[in-house]
Amino acid sequence: MSSSKQKINGSNAKSGLTQKSSSLRLTTKEFKKGERVMLRSHDQVTKQRLVLGIQLINESWFYFVEWMPPALEECTSLDNRLALVQEKDLVRVVFNSKQ
After folding, report:
1. Where are the alpha helices (DSSP H) in the chain?
2. Cβ partners under 8 Å of residue 88, min gap 6
3. Which of 12, 45, 56, 83 sits CB 3.0–4.6 Å from 67 for a disulfide?
4. Where would I find the beta strands (DSSP E) of the chain?
């Protein structure tokens, strides 16, 4: 009787694991690494930036973009130059090659 109980519990555990993994759906990334973007902001800054990295956090894609341009003087860390932003904060830059 205990062996049949273990089989039932084992199958329940497996189905629970399957349900959890099937409920986790990865959405597609809106931007690619190396793509040119602009930060969506209230001021009229129109500097183009590059997507330097992509990270999945809590089922949402976040993008590393350069917050400040590289300085000519030595920089001690990269942390103060990069921003981690959501895709809703970015605008794709479209090039017109016919110009």
Report:
1. 2-23
2. 40
3. 83
4. 36-39, 49-57, 60-66, 82-86, 90-92
pLDDT of residue 81: 74
Looking at per-residue pLDDT, the higher value among 72 and 23 belongs to 72
- C-alpha to C-alpha distance for 46 and 75, rounded to whole angstroms: 24
Residue 2 lies in a domain: no
d(CA 26, CA 15): 20
Global pTM value: 0.58
Q: Looking at per-residue confidence, does 73 or 25 come out higher?
A: 73
Q: Report how far apart, in Å, the C-alpha atoms of 89 and of each of 4, 12, 13, 17, 97 are.
A: 54, 42, 40, 34, 26
pLDDT tier for residue 93 given thresholds of 50, 70 and 90:
confident
Domain span holding position 49: 27-92
Question: Which residues share a beta bridge with 32?
Answer: none
Cα separation, 90 vs 92, in Å, equals 7
Does residue 79 lie in a domain region? yes
